[in-house]
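The following record pairs a protein chain with its ligand, flavin-adenine dinucleotide.
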Amino acid sequence: MFDHIERFYQPTTLREALLLIRKVGKRGRIVAGATDIVTQADRSTRFLVDITRLGLNYVQGNHRGCSIGATTTMAVLEHSPVIRALAGGILAKAAATCGSIQNRNMATVGGNLANASPAADTAAVLLALDAQVVVASSRRKRKIALAEFYSGPHQNTLIGELLTEIVIPASPGGGRLGWSFQKLGRTETDISLVNVAAGLQADARGRIKWARLALGAVGPIPLRARNAEELLRGNSLNEDLLTRVGEAVMKEVSPISDSRASAEYRREMSAVLARRALRECAAQAGIKL
Ligand SMILES: Cc1cc2nc3c(=O)[nH]c(=O)nc-3n(C[C@H](O)[C@H](O)[C@H](O)COP(=O)(O)OP(=O)(O)OC[C@H]3O[C@@H](n4cnc5c(N)ncnc54)[C@H](O)[C@@H]3O)c2cc1C
C-alpha cells in the first residue's frame, strides 16, 4: 500500500484538510489510525491525507445526546465516562472488542464506519442507537442517518467528503430501558463472525414500546432487523416471542461463507445472539421471561 505514496499530508485545520482532499481527488486517500488501510493493497493511491491533527478527537455529552469526533479512538470510547453511561455502555463495550489494545489505541470510530466493513463492531451499535454522521467537503456539510451511509461491502455514500462527527440522539426517557451488545469471534481479538446490538423500552406492564435490533457481518452492510423489531413492538416478551424473533432475524440476514465461518453458521448464530441480546435487555428493563 505505502510503497507508491508520493506525498503524506498532515493538515492541522479542518479547512486545510478539506481543500487537500479536494486537491488530491481520486488518487488520494484519507488516513486516520491506518489499521484498515495498512491491510489494503490499493496501489492507485499516491497521496495520503492524515486527519488525526484536526481536533476531531472528542466525546461531548449533553441533554440532546452525544457527539463524537471522527478521530476518537476505540481506546478513548472504551474508557470515556460519557460513553460508558450511554445506553448501557454498549458503544464502550463494542469499542473494547476492536482487536488488541495496540489496535484500539490507533483505530478510530470514523475509520471503523468509513471503511464500511459489514463486520465493523461500532456500526451495529450506532445503527441501534439511531446515530447520524456529519460529513463535510470544501463545498458543503451534511448530516446523514447511519442507516443510509452504506452502499455495499466496503462502500459508503461519501463523495469526496470527510466524516467529521457522529451524533447519537438521547434515548427516549420515561420507561424501563435495556441495552445489549453481543459479539461472536473466533478469538477475543478477531473481527466478528456475527455481532448484534439491541435496545428496548418496556411500559409499566412490561409490554415493549419500541425495540431496536442491529446486526453486523451477516449481510453486505450492517443492518437493522426491521421485521424482528416490528414483531416485538407492542408485545410482551416471552419464550415464544423470542423464538419467532429469532426466526425473523434468520430471514432478514444474508450472510456469506468465508475463511472464518459458513453462511449457515452465521445465520444460526444471528438468531442465537439476537435472542441473547434481547434476554439481557429484558433483564435490565425488569421484564421477567
Ligand atoms: C489486527 C486487527 C484487528 C482488528 N479487529 C477489529 C475488530 O475486532 N472489530 C472491528 O470493528 N474492526 C477491527 N479491525 C479493523 C480496524 O481496526 C477498524 O475498522 C478501525 O476502526 C479503522 O479505523 P482507522 O482509523 O484505523 O481507519 P483507517 O485505516 O485510517 O481508514 C479506514 C478507511 O476509512 C477511510 N477513513 C478513515 N477515516 C475517515 C473519515 N473520518 N472520513 C472519511 N473516510 C475516512 C480511509 O480513507 C480508509 O478508506 C481490526 C484491524 C486490525 C489490523
